[in-house]
Amino acid sequence: MEFQNLIEARRSVRKYADREVTREQVEEIIRAAQEAPSWKNQQTSKYYCVLSKDKREELRTTCFPSFNEQRCMNAALIVTAYEKNNVGFDDNGQPINELGNGWGCYDLGLQNMLFMLKAKELGLDTLVMGIRDGEKLRAALNIPENEEIGAVLALGYADEEPKRPRRRELSDIAKIF
């Protein structure tokens, strides 16, 4: 798929078909996501991939509000995280600038975008879910305290065709000097 078409074809899907995502697909997608740039090439992003139907159901019903619980039914769940206090900090553990751990989140976002685009290229769809119970996810997946949970990505085969939403005018979002 041509890159611009791929970008425009990616949609936030909120209804998934009852069709399994394979470990091989997830591994291929994560390998593509790893090509994203990161602060000093630290590569602190982490992926906790929940493919088993039983574990997905456990997380879906205990870690999400009802609207996200419904939106990720039948989807694999990919909990994304990054190592805290690593990127954006000097050798003494002091933030380089006002963003501090924001750089870890930024790097994770870059990887997550490549994750979503590669998924689309492979015929899969995604939904970024930020509203979730991070501490319940941490406990259920044994995510260490030194990692900050970012988003959960629902990953699966769409059972709907969302329309492309209108985008703001370039003049509303960009100032070119």
TrEMBL record:
<dbReference type="Pfam" id="PF00881">
    <property type="entry name" value="Nitroreductase"/>
</dbReference>
<keyword id="KW-0560">Oxidoreductase</keyword>
<dbReference type="InterPro" id="IPR029479">
    <property type="entry name" value="Nitroreductase"/>
</dbReference>
<comment type="similarity">
    <text>Belongs to the nitroreductase family.</text>
</comment>
<dbReference type="GO" id="GO:0016491">
    <property type="term" value="F:oxidoreductase activity"/>
</dbReference>
<protein>
    <submittedName>
        <fullName>Nitroreductase</fullName>
    </submittedName>
</protein>
<dbReference type="InterPro" id="IPR000415">
    <property type="entry name" value="Nitroreductase-like"/>
</dbReference>
<feature type="domain" description="Nitroreductase">
    <location>
        <begin position="7"/>
        <end position="157"/>
    </location>
</feature>
